[in-house]
Amino acid sequence: MSRSTALTLSLAWTVWASPATSQPTPPSLCLHVESADGVPPASALQLAIEHELEVPVRTEMPCPAASGALTVTPAGPGQAHVAFVAPDGHKAGRAIRLPAETARAAETIALLASSLVRDEAGELLDTLRKSKPAPKKAEVPPAPSPPPTPPVPAPLPAGTPPAPPPPLPAGVPPPSPAPPGPPAATAADGDDDAWRPDGGGLSIAVDLVPGVSLPPGRFTSPTRSLSFGVIGAWSPGLRGIEAAHVFALKSRSARGIQMAGGFCIVAEELRGIQLAGGLNVVGGRLRGIQGSFGVNIARSIDRGVQFGSLNLAGASDRVVQFGFANLAVGELRGIQGGFFNAARGDLRGVQLGLANLATGSVRGVQVGLLNLARDADAGIGLLSLYWKGRTHLEMWSQDWARAMIGLKHGSRYIHNIVAVGGRSVGDRWLPVVALGLGLRARLGDRLHVDVDAVHHLLLQGQSAEDQAPDHLSQAKATVGLRLFRSATVFAGLSLNALWLPTRDLVESLTPFERDDSTRKDVCQNCAERRSADLWPGVVVGVAGF
Predict the structure, then answer these.
(1) Which of 167, 318, 420, 428 stands the most exposed, by the fewest C-beta atoms within 10 Å?
(2) Is there a single domain that holds both residue 302 and residue 407?
(3) Are residues 258 and 277 in the same domain?
(4) The whole model's pTM is what?
(5) What CA–CA distance (Å, rounded) separates 489 from 499?
(6) Vertex 307, ends 353 and 320: CA angle to 5°?
C-alpha cells in the first residue's frame, strides 16, 4: 500500500469515528421528586404538571441551562414541599398537605407547581409553549400487495351443474361472510371540516338551536370569537364572547366571557367570566369569575372568584367564595364568606359565616357563631371546637368569688371559656355562671400570658323577688408558668364592672370601702341607680392539660 493511500484511509477513519458536534440542549422545565410515603411517583407528577401547564416536563437530570427546576420533597407525614427555581435564580416554594389518594395528591401538587411556575417564569412558559413540537401524524403502513390472480377456469358446457366446493377438514367451521365495510365519508355526511383541510372558517355564528346555526356549522370555525344563541349556543371552543337566552355549552376549553339566562357549561378549562341565572359549570380549572343566582361548580380554581347561592370547587389556590353556602373539596387557599362555609381538607385563609367547618387544619382565622376544624390558628365565635386544639381545665379564686372551675378550649391563639363557681354572701353560697373569650401569647416553652374577657351571671336566692341574676363583666390578664408536663400555676390582675349595682351587692362582692360622700347613696329601694361600678381585683389559680 502506498503512503498516500494510507494517509487517505487514516483521515477517512478519523472523520468517520469522531463524534458529531453536540448541540446545546434547549431550555426546559425540569422535575425532581424525592420518593417517600404519601408523595406520588415522578411519572404521575410529570403527567399532572404537563396537563396543568400544557408544556413538556423533563425528569432526566442534570437540568439544561436557562431552565426552570421544580423539586418535590417530603415535609412530614402527609405533607410535601414544592419548590421552584426560575432561570434567573429566584426561588419560591410552599409546603402543602396531601390527600390520601395518589391521584388527588398528584393533582394538588400539580396545581401548586403550576401556580409557582406562572408567577416566577412566565417568559419561560411562553418559550416552551412556542417550541412545543407538533404531534406526529401516524404513519399509514403500505397496503399489502394483492395475491396473484388464479387462472380463470374454462366455461362449462351448457346444462352442466356447477362443481360442489371441496369438503372442509373435520372440526373446521365454515367461513363466515365478511362484514360490509363503512361507507366512504363525504362532505355531505355532516363532517364540518371535511371541505377544508386546515379546519378554518368564520369565527362568528348565531345558533337557533344547537346544531342549527347561521352560517351553517360547516362554514364556521370550531373555536368562535363571537357566539350568540337564540335558545342555546354550542361549539367546541370559545376565544371571545358568547351569549344565549337559555344555555351556553362548550365541549372544550374557553377564554373570554360566557353568559346565559339559564346555565353555562365549559367541559375543560375556563379563563374568563361565566355568568348565568341558574348554573355555571367548569369541568377543568377556572381562572376567572363565576357568578349566578344559583349554583357555581368548578373542578379546581387558580386565582378565581365564585359568587352565588351555592359555590362548589375542588382544590383551589387564591380563591374567593361568597354565597349562602360555600364548599371546597380539597385544600383551599383563600376566603370563604357565607352562612355556611366548609372545606374538605386544609384551609389557608379566612372563613367568615354563621357556621364554619374544615376537616383539616386552618392556617388562618375562622369567624362565626360555630367553628369546627381539626386545629386552627384563631377561632372567634360563640362556640369553637377543635378536635386537635388546645384544652385546659382550670381552677382559680378571685377577690369576689372564692372558688371557680372552668374549661378553656380553642385554637392556637384564641380560646373560649366556660366556667361555674360560687360566692359567699353571709351564711349563703350563691352560684356563678361565666362565659368568655381569651387570647394566649406564648413567651417560651414554659411561660405564657392570657388576656381574657369574661361575663358572669350572679344567681340570687330562692325568693321570688331575687330570681333575676346580676351581671358582672371582667377583663383579666394572667401569667402562667408550667411546672410539670400537665400542671401550670397562674396569677394576675383583673378589672371588674358590676352593672346596675346596689349597695348590698357591691359590699358583698368587694372588700374595698366606698366613698359616697360626694354623691347620693345607692340603696336597694332607690329609684335612681348608677349604670356600673368598677374596681380592680386579683386572680390566682392552677391549670391542668
Answers:
(1) 167
(2) no
(3) yes
(4) 0.61
(5) 31
(6) 65
